[in-house]
Amino acid sequence: MNRIFSGVQPTGNLHLGNYLGAIRNWVALQHDYDCIFCIVDLHALTVAQRPEELRANTREVTAAYIAAGIDPDRCIIFNQSAVPGHSELAWLLGCITPLGWLNRMTQFKEKAGRHRENAGLGLYSYPVLMAADILLYKATHVPVGEDQKQHLELSRDIAGAFNRQYDTEFFPLPEPQILGEATRVMSLRDGSAKMSKSDPSAYSRINMTDDADTIALKVRKAKTDPEPLPSEAKGLENRPEAANLVNIYAALSGMSKDAVLNEFGGKMFSAFKPALSDLAVAKLGPIGQEMTHLLKDRGLIDGILRKGAERAGEIARAHMAQMHDIIGILRP
Ligand code: AMP
Ligand code: TRP
User: Fold this and answer.
1) Which terminus in the chain has less CB density within 10 A, N or C?
2) What CATH number has the domain bearing residue 32?
């Protein structure tokens, strides 16, 4: 059976982009694939985290997966650091990854900013750890938002480099799955910036735990332009804020963009925004409530993570042993 691996960092502020770009798509895929969904805490540590918040955010992402509809009996849900193979394989893959490949990564350049000399080694090797996550389980498919495309291409290149170096077909080349009408959800305040957990403006994003009033307020305050909505997708060109809201509506409703514009073309944002906010409340409200409910039962969440780590660990250990053989690492 084809295997899926994907993950979200426990860095707080889970938002509509995480939901529409990633988690929501996983829910549908769990019936057709053998699925492993990770809370990538080691990746989160590439940026300073407060210990108490990291712990809480790890549980929050777990609750989000389950509340969104991922079945912890069917899928493996665990936190990355609980399976030591991720770190070990990241080292092994780092040894065959040329610096030139890492130097092309745009996310590193963005996150490191102008003071690149001060950026940590972990931030630089972040994509190698991501390749290790995927390859440790020999995953064949990786459902993510569009921003992860370059990292996935690198994962494929690293898998290929390993296979060539050891003259084997041990690793499948993982396929990205970038699905839905909202693969890149933009900030509600700026149609040229990605919706992000770290944006200082709370109005830039809709969080998965926002209540109905907060969602309505954020949609009402979302930046738009003074024109009515166009009646076909072509009319959204050069209107990034309008395009973003239409994409969100399409993704949440399961309609195509054209169908949305067919319904709202010619209408003003004053008519579209209330419809969008009702839709967002209808779709996200129950998930947020379920998250809050689940998070009251730490024992339940921790039990799911513990069981997930055991199941993931079993697969990882078997693959690591095979890799030791291939590489020539002696286990006397
Ligand atoms: P992160 O929050 O960086 O751990 O991302 C977790 C998942 O959400 C990845 O699959 C990302 O591609 C996806 N994601 C994050 N932000 C967005 C966004 N603004 N639009 C669509 N997908 C996103
Ligand atoms: N880098 C991903 C992100 O920030 C998270 C991630 C880590 C991931 N390891 C992964 C996603 C493996 C898919 C597969 O969004």
Assistant:
1) C
2) 3.40.50.620
Check whether residue 133 and residue 236 sit in a common domain: no
Sole residue written with tokens 């492993």? 36
Q: Tell me if 148 CB under 6 Å of ligand 1.
A: yes
- Of these residues, 109, 138, 149, 194, which one is catalytic? 194
38 and 126 together in one domain = yes
Which residue's CA lies nearest to atom 14 of ligand 1?
18
Number of compact structural domains in the chain: 2
Catalytic (active site) residue 197: yes
What's the length of the chain? Answer: 332
In DSSP notation, 27-53 reads HHHTTTSEEEEEE-HHHHTTS---HHH
Rounded distance between C-alpha atoms, residue 8 and residue 200, angstroms: 20
Per-residue pLDDT, averaged over 309-319, amounts to 98
Q: Which residues are paired to 79 by β-bridges?
A: 39
Domain for residue 187, yes or no?
A: no
Residue 218 located in a structural domain = yes
Q: Print the domain residue range for 285.
A: 202-293
Q: Do 117 and 23 reside in the same domain of the chain?
A: yes
> In the structure encoding, which two tokens stand for residue 277, read together?
């906010």
The verdict on 128 and 268 lying in the same domain is no
Cα–Cα distance, 198 to 208 (Å, whole number): 15
pLDDT at 204: 98
Q: Are 201 and 207 in contact (CB under 8 A)?
A: no
Predicted pLDDT at 1 = 74
Q: Which residues contact 13 (CB under 8 A, 6 or more apart)?
A: 197, 198, 205, 207
